[in-house]
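Thread: quick sanity check before group meeting

JM: Hey all, I'm pulling together slides for Thursday and realized we never actually wrote out the predicted structure for the chain we discussed last week. Dropping the sequence here so it's in one place. If anyone has concerns about the input, flag it before I start.
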Amino acid sequence: MNINNQLLTKLETLSSLKVEDSKRESIVNQLSEIVNFVENLNELDLSGCEATFTTVEGGTPFREDVPFYDDKTVKTVIKYAPNSENGFFIVPKIIE
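JM (edit): ok, ran it. Output follows.
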């Protein structure tokens, strides 16, 4: 893929960014280097590899979902809340 000023202008539009004229050439060169590096991945022979979604063999280990909180932290946070009761924030009712 060839990165040029036309493509950079399109990327500016899509990303809602504006690249200064003085930096355009530098950005084009950097993007070209990135794309060339990524295109090297196409040279890898992955025909013998099975697709995976995790790098952890056997999947992600589960743990028991146990709530944990430090009473001192809760008290510190609640101290700065405009309104609280029994360790919970009190907020105005928004649904009737």
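AS: nice. The radius of gyration is 26 Å. The chain is about 40% helix and 5% strand.
JM: adding both to the slides.
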